[in-house]
Amino acid sequence: GKFGDAEDLLIELYQITSAYENNFSKLLYHEMYAKILFKTRKPGKALKEIMKCIELCRELGQRSKSKTYLGIKAHLEILNGDFVGAEATLAQTNNIITEEKILLPLHLSRHRISEFLYNINMLERSLISGDPHDISQYKKRCLSYGKKMVSVSEKYSCDRVESYRLMGTYHWITGKMKTAIKYWDKSIREGK
Fold it and tell me: Chunked in runs of 10, what are the mean pLDDT values of the chain (192 residues)?
């Protein structure tokens, strides 16, 4: 939580970026700034910074790294309530994933989290509406995407706490309280 210190470091990074006009430094600056905005619950501003990251990835030919930013973009769209936009972003990322032969957990993790988060939100909506077909469909999707999310997080520890927490939420929503508590406990232990 020392966001003030982090912002001071970002100002220094921005000055370096401006002085040397290095696009990779610029990409790092926008990524770090977006993450700070994300952590401080400013998803609208964070989305603008992530869009700059995605554009820089296109300019630099960093297609594999763009998966990370597209995953974050989808997450921010979900937080902003833009489920149509999130669905389009997830589809765009899935197209990149199917074309690539090597998938690094580092680049795949945020996408898997956003994919799961999208489906758990859709499950919650279907539970409210009471549509049994949608409920069944989204339960299956959540379980499938949740397993993929946890599998990737086992290889990339940075998102493991969030993955376990979200799986706990899924199990709580579906009435499996003991399993939910097990995942939340894993999340807490991992975070220590």
Answer: 78 84 86 89 92 93 89 95 96 91 88 96 95 94 96 93 96 96 96 88
- CB of 107 closer than 8 Å to CB of 67: yes
129 burial (CB, 10 Å; 0-12 / 13-18 / 19+) is: exposed
What is the C-alpha separation between 8 and 12, in angstroms, rounded? 7
19 C-beta neighbours (distance < 10 Å), count: 9
Instruction: Return the ∠ at Cα 36 (arms to 34 and 38), rounded to 5°.
Output: 65
What pLDDT does 1 receive? 66
Q: Which residues lie below 8 Å from residue 65, measured CB to CB, with a gap of 6+?
A: 57, 107
